[in-house]
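Minutes, project huddle
Topic: does the predicted pose make sense with magnesium ion bound?
PN asked that the exact inputs be recorded in the minutes so nobody has to dig through chat later. Recorded below.
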Amino acid sequence: MSEAPILKDTARSSGREALQKNIQAAMALSEAIRSTLGPKGLDKLLIDDEGRTLVTNDGVTVLETAKVEHPVAKMMINASSTQDRIAKDGTTSTVILAGEMLQNAWQLVLQGIHPSTIARGYRNAEQYILNCIDEIKLDSDEEMRKTVVKTSLAGKGHASMQQKIADLSLDAVKMVADEDNSVDISKIKLISQTGGTVEDSKVFQGLMLPKKRISSDMAKEVSNGKIILIDGGLEKKNVSTDLKLNVTSIGVLESFRQEERHMLMVQVDRLVEYGVNVLACRESIDDDVKNYLVKHGIQAFRRVSRNDLNMLAKSCGARLVNSITASTPSDLGDFISSNNIAIDAKDFWVVEGEGKAATIIAKGSTVDIVGEVERCFDDSLGVSVQLIEDGAVVCGGGASYVALARRLRRFAETIPGREQLAVEAYADAIEVIVRVLAENAGIDPITTLLDVVAKQTNTDSDRFGVDLATGKPEDMFDTGVLEPLGIVKQALIGATEVAIAILRIDDVLWAKQDMEMPELPNDDM
Ligand code: ADP
Ligand code: MG
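Predicted holo structure (C-alpha cells), as shared on screen:
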C-alpha cells in the first residue's frame, strides 16, 4: 500500500485486515468474561497494579479492573460500563452479545458481504426487536419482584444472602420512590462495614452518615430546624503555609490571631441570625468555634465528604456554600430531625429531610466479603429501581432471547437481498446467552439451545429457557427465574450499538507500532 508521506510515522491497517483485528480484540474480551455468566458462572481473581486482590463474578468489575490498551476492547468495556450506569445489571450479557454479533458478522464478511450491509441488517433487526419486545413481557406483583431481584444475584454469594440483599434493596428503593414511581438512586446511601454477617445488614429511612457531632455538649437530637452545608471549614489559617505576614512589633501576630478568631465568631453570629440549628462542614472546625457553637445551641459536624454534603443538600433542599460569608438564607435547608444514634457501638448521624432518602448498612465478616456484598447491592438496587419504575419483566435463562430470535427469523424472511442474512446472523447471535449459560453449567450448549427452541416452538410459548437447576428447558415463569424487561432491552441496545460501531471502522491508524493485540484463545476465525 503506498502511504502518503504525511502518514509515514503512522502504522495503518485498513479494510478487511482492520476489521479482522478489531473483531479479534472484541472477541478476546468477550471470551475473557464468558465463564462468569449466570448462576453457575465462575469467579475471577483480579489483582490490580498495587497488588490488591479481588474475587468477583461481576462482568463490569472484571473489565474495568483489567488493564486493556486496545481501543476496540476499550469500546466493548465502555458498552459494559454504560450498561452498568443505565441498568446496573446485564453487564456480562452485553459484552457476550456484542462479541457474538461481531463473530457472526465476520462469517458473513468471509462470504463476501460488505460490513455496511451487515450493519444495516443489524440495525434493522434491533429496531424490529424493540418494536415487538413488549409482546413477551409479563407484569410483576410484589412477590415476583422479589424473585426478579434475587435472580439478578444468581451466582453471587449464597441463597440466604441473595434473599436478604434483594429484600433490603426493594425496601430502600420503595422508601425513596416518588408518587409517580420515579426513583433517584442517588438518594440511597450505602455504608459498608466489616463485622457481623450479611444477615445483619439493615435499611433505614433517612440519610445516615457514620459521623458524630463534634461535641457531646451539643444537643443529641434536633427537630424541625434549618441546616447549613459548608463546602469548606471554620478554622484559622495556617500562618506558615497560607499567609505571609510582616511582623514588625511584638503583639502583631497575637492581635492578628485575635482578629481572625473574632471573624470566625462573627460568622457564627450570622448563623444565629439566620436561625440555623445544624451545621455540616467538609473541612475542620476550630475548638474556639466549637465552644461558641455549643453556646448558641448549634449542632455541628465536620469532615463530611462532599458526596455526603450533596446527599444532605438533596434531602433537605439546601445549597452548598463555600463559606458562611458567601451564604444567604436561601441556601439553607430544612430538616425534620437530626439525630445522633449508635448502632452496634458505631456512631451515626441520622438526618430526615422533606426529600426522601434511605440508607443501607451492609455488613460482612471480612473486607473481601463486604466488597462483594457492596457489588451485589449495586446490581440489586439497579434492578429494584427498574422494577419500581416499570414492573415489566421477562423470563430469564435465555428464554427472552430465544423468543425474540424466533420472531426475528420470521421477520428475516420478509427482507430481500443480503441484508436478510445479517438479520438471521443477529438472531443466531442473541441466542448465545442460552449457549453460554449451559456451557458454564457443564451441559451441552448446542443440544440445550435446540431443545429450548423446540420447546418454545412446539408449545408456542415465550417462557421456556434453560433451567440450570435441572439442566433442562423449563417454563422460567414457573421456576421463578425472571428479569426486568428494561435490562434485556438495554443489553440488546448497548451490544448492537458497539457491534455496529466496530463494524463501521475500516481503517485503523496509530502513531506507535507497539500497540498490543489481546490474545485470542481460539484462533479459528
Ligand atoms: P449479567 O452481568 O449479564 O447480569 P449474570 O452473571 O448476572 O450476568 O447472569 C445473568 C443471566 O443468568 C441472566 O440471563 C439470567 O436469566 C440467568 N440466570 C440466573 N439464574 C438462572 C437460573 N436459575 N437458571 C437459568 N438462568 C439463570
Ligand atoms: Mg446479573
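Observations noted during the meeting:
- Residues 141-206+362-390 form a domain with the GROEL; domain 2 fold (CATH 3.30.260.10).
- Residues 89, 152, 379 surround magnesium ion (ligand 2) (CB under 6 Å).
No decisions taken; revisit at the next huddle.
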